[in-house]
């Protein structure tokens, strides 16, 4: 007889949103890298012309902005995790159910 596994899956809305935002950033970064390759191909033989350097600067600026956006999402996620850990720790120290956090408390944090 095969053993059955029983488990629970908890998903948080914040986690889903974070993953969507990171995926979006990664797709945008990928397309910007492709755009940079196109600019390099168009400017072959005139790499140091003003027009070529201006186009490269524009693409690199977009890439930098997107990377900053991705980093901000990561910082937000880390802050949420830190708040959750602190809350669990406080609850555990008070003797409130062994450090378990309720669904209502998780939703209040988000």
Number of strands: 0
* Largest sheet descriptor: none
N- and C-termini, Cα separation:
43 Å
Residue fraction in strands: under 5%
Individual helix count: 3
Tell me the helix content. over 70%
Mean pLDDT: 80
Radius of gyration, in Å, reads: 23 Å
pLDDT < 50 runs, ≥5 residues: none
Assign an overall shape.
elongated
Query: What structural category do the secondary elements indicate?
Result: mainly alpha
Order of helices and strands: HHH
Quick overview of this protein structure:
With 110 residues, the protein is mainly alpha-helical. Helices cover 74% and strands 0% of the residues.
Structure report:
The protein is mainly α and 110 residues long. It has a domain at 18-91. The chain contains three helices and no strands. It is elongated, with a radius of gyration of 23 Å. The relative contact order is 0.11. The model has no long low-confidence stretch (mean pLDDT 80).
Secondary-structure map with pairings?
Layout: H1 13-42, H2 50-93, H3 103-109
Which tags fit this structure?
single chain; 110 residues; mainly alpha; 0% strand; elongated
